[in-house]
Specification:
- It is a single chain.
- With 323 residues, the chain is an alpha+beta fold.
- It has a domain of 203 residues: 60s Ribosomal Protein L30, Chain: A (2-Layer Sandwich).
- It is built from 8 helices and 5 strands; from the N terminus they run H-H-H-E-E-H-H-E-H-E-H-E-H.
- The chain has a 5-stranded mixed beta sheet with strand order 1-2-5-3-4.
- Strand 3, helix 6 and strand 4 form a beta-alpha-beta unit.
- The chain starts with a helix and ends with a helix.
Length: 323
Amino acid sequence: MRAQARRIEHEEEEESAFVSMTDMTVGFLFIIMILLVFFASQVRTQDVVERSLYEATVRERDDLRAQIVELDARIVQLELEKADLVDVVARLETELRAALEEIARLEAELARLQEVDPLEAYLSEVAATRRQILLRLRDALRQDFPDLNVELSEESDALRFQGEGLFVSGQSRLAPDKREIVERLAQRLDETLPCFTIGPESGFDPSCNPRFVMIEAVQIEGHTDNIGTDELNRTLSTARANSTFFAMTRAADTLMEHRNLKGQPVLSVAAYGPDRPVADNDTPAGRATNRRIDLRFIMVTPPDTEGIEIIRQALGDLGDNDP
């Protein structure tokens, strides 16, 4: 009985201890819950904002997204435009290179054209010198005889005297009052020729002939209109040319001493009858113009630069021999 009572007592003690532990646990849990409630009451949500601010932020975000979409589209467009511009630049660069090549070609061609051909330059100087000689003779005759009808030919290679200015119509003998004109022309010509010819009466000097030009011939040409027979006109033109020739050589007896490069006298005679009219023979004025004497200057025109040197040497030798 006693043992049973101790066992029951022991069990009661164990049961009492268990109840105590349970109560303690429950109490502890209760305290924890209280603490949790307390701490929960102290927590404030920091992420909570006003709705109007939220909605404004959402609208701004949506606007920014729309702008980003627009910018992306613009970027795509610009990329396409860039590609087009690259093509345009490439095309323009190709055109620029072609233009530069064409400019270079044209500059080379211009440089080639600007290169002066010595022969062409000399022949141009020959023509210019002949014109100067003719102008000097014409102006001198106009000063001596203001009423004289004397002009340069269209080619600027001859002095042209209207036939009736020197001859009576239909006659080959110089009119007495016109002989003085021919004599004065002979004297002027005799003064001019020495610097452009060789021979006993030549007097070359670079100051009067800086281009080293030489006269081949000075032709006294007779011309008529077309009135009358061909034989008559040719005979008349020849007779007029000869009358002029002899009047000039008598007035300046050294004219025949002026020689060309071949050693021939430069003064000569030619007659063309009606073959070379310079005006219309259907009018009296035209026929009067065609009845004329031309004093034509034919210059030495070398075929190449070697010929130029031959002329320079011939005239230069004369200059070296001057006292």
